[in-house]
Amino acid sequence: MFWRMSLLALGAALAALPVASSEPAAVTLHESPHAVDVKIGGRLFTTYRFAPDPSHPLVAPGILQTKPVLHPVLSPSGVPLTRAYPYESVAGEATDHPHHQGIYFTYDDVGPEMDDFWGNSKEPLPAIRHVKIVRAQGGKGVGTLATLSRWVGKSGRDLLEEEREMIFRAIGASQSQIDFTIRLKALDREIAFGDTKEGMFAVRVAQWLTDKETGRYLSSEGGEGEKGVWGKRARWIRLQGEKDGKTLGIAILDHPASTNAPTYWHARGYGCFSVNPLGQLDFQKAHQVAEPKAFGLKLAPGASALFKYRVVVYEGDLTPAQIEDLYRQFAR
User: Fold this and answer.
1) What letter does residue 24 receive in the DSSP assignment?
2) I need a labelling partner for 247 at 20 to 30 A (CA). Which of 36, 110, 185, 314 fits?
3) Alpha-carbon gap, residue 291 to 284, rounded angstroms
4) Alpha-carbon separation of residue 13 from 7, 8, 18 (angstroms)
5) What is the CATH number of domain 23-331?
6) How confident is the model at residue 165 (pLDDT cuts 50, 70, 90)?
């Protein structure tokens, strides 16, 4: 009788214990006049800043936000993986290249006037101007944000229309992902892109992820550090480092359907981590390739180019084999 009562008591105690949920964390999107906050499990993951917020000006004197950006980008436990500047001042953080803002998508040398969308942060134009949010939807483990923007040249003329879809994924307690599908469409005239290293889909990473501190690049081709990855082709690159005793990192995966895949990389040790499929001639010249050839992207009126990338934000070590597996899943 005693043992039966003990078993009943144990069963009741076990039933009262909290049960770990197997459901993925909720991804929620919260719109405001200048931005959309993306949260995973109630915790901020990133903010899509589609227009400057006059109530929160940049801390860098004379610097403008001339493009939509994702800033900040946080690890699953809340560690910032992007540089705070020029949105905030952080002691000891580099303040070079103020046009490097969070995760951004721009390019130098666009159109007949060779507009520099990449480097401009001091003049109102050229700029990428947000037109509207097409779709903002949260859900269990996944959320989607689709937007429409226009690339406006320094003359004030619209050159390109940008359709962008960002899919935010909660992958367990130690990993988050963002899938970017971006289409650039020429409007009423041909738009040519010069082959330059200054582009294109980039992250300006936190100071501790630079090679002056703990960050180390590794590519799908085995290249390590800036010397091993800059200006070279690769399916993916991992940037991993240490912060407060924890291993964290960012990996960018290039989809095989993306323009000029496998892409070239403009990945610098000081913290500019960029995919650049259009800078082929610059990179081949830098690496002294025999008979270098320009990629020379030109879009006829109404024609478009596809750019498709996955950003993996993670905690703990991700081995090359694990990232290759993520790449194969993405490429399917």
Assistant:
1) P
2) 36
3) 9
4) 10, 9, 10
5) 2.70.98
6) very high
CA gap 281, 100 in Å, rounded: 23
- Cis peptide before 126, with omega less than 30 degrees from 0? yes
Contacts of 223 (CB under 8 A, 6+ apart): 217, 229, 232, 234
Give 178's strand partners: 168, 311
Please give the helix or strand (H or E) that residue 72 lies within, else none. Answer: strand 69-73
Spell out the residues 6+ positions from residue 289 whose beta carbon is closer than 8 angstroms to its own: none
Backbone angles phi, psi at 147, to 5 degrees: -135, 160
* Residue, of 136 and 23, whose pLDDT is higher: 136
Tell me the H-state helices in 64-222. Answer: none
Measured over the CA atoms of residue 86, residue 91, residue 95 and residue 101, the dihedral's sign is negative
Coil, strand or helix: which one is 280? helix
Sign of torsion over alpha carbons 180, 186, 192, 198: negative
d(CA 312, CA 242): 16
Scanning the structure block, which residue is given the tokens 């159109």?
Answer: 111
Give the H or E element holding residue 298. Answer: strand 298-299
Mean residue pLDDT of the chain comes to 94
- Locate 25 and state its tokens: 């964390």
CA angle, corner 25, sides to 22 and 27, nearest 5?
A: 155
Q: What is the dihedral of CA 185, 187, 192, 198, to 10 degrees?
A: -60
In this structure, what token pair is assigned to residue 116?
């520099």
- Predicted confidence at residue 12, as pLDDT, reads 46
3-state secondary structure at position 187 = coil
- Name every residue whose Cβ is closer than 8 Å to that of residue 227 and which is 6 or more positions away in sequence: none
For residue 283, report the phi and psi dihedrals to the nearest 5 degrees.
-70, -40
Residue range 36-64: average pLDDT?
Answer: 97
